[in-house]
Design goal:
InterPro entries: Transposase_31. It is a single chain. By secondary structure, the chain is an alpha+beta fold. The protein has one domain. The chain is built from 5 helices and 6 strands. The strands form 2 sheets. Strands 1-4-5-6 form a 4-stranded mixed β-sheet. The longest helix is centred in the C-terminal third of the chain and has 16 residues. The protein starts with a helix and ends in an 11-residue tail after the last strand.
């Protein structure tokens, strides 16, 4: 219960961070992913409606924080870029990201040839995260 109230109190921070990512999407990609930046046509990038993903095995439904679609410069297909801001410790975060990626792949594999998941950790303390 304490963890739930802690997470709920962080929501405004997460919302502000999502707005920053939306506003400075191109600059963020250019700074942290320069190779990817060169491949995206930003004039055709758009924010998708909030995506609801259901974990059938875990019987859990979650809404993705931020999902953007972008056209590639030299390709005839779009990519999905999933941003997941994470401001609190979650021991199951790597599993959750894997489930998000799997559900996105399952839903969009015929229309989007690439899905790029990006986790942005904004906690006050630093620690190593598993790559699983």
């Amino acid at each position: 219960m304490a963890e739930q109230s802690r997470v709920a109190s962080l929501t405004p921070h997460d919302e502000a961070f999502k707005k920053l990512l939306q506003t400075f999407f191109e600059e963020f990609i250019a700074l942290f992913f320069p190779a990817v930046h060169q491949t995206i046509d930003y004039s055709k990038a758009k924010l998708l409606m909030q995506e609801q993903l259901v974990d059938i095995v875990g019987q859990d439904a979650r809404t993705l924080d931020l999902l953007l679609e972008a056209q590639l410069v030299e390709e005839a297909f779009c990519v999905l870029i999933h941003f997941e801001p994470q401001s609190y410790r979650d021991d199951r975060f790597a599993e959750r990201m894997f489930i998000y990626f799997s559900r996105l792949y399952e839903r969009y594999r015929k229309t989007h040839k690439r899905i790029i998941p990006i986790a942005v950790f904004t906690a006050d303390s630093t620690r190593n995260e598993s790559d699983l």
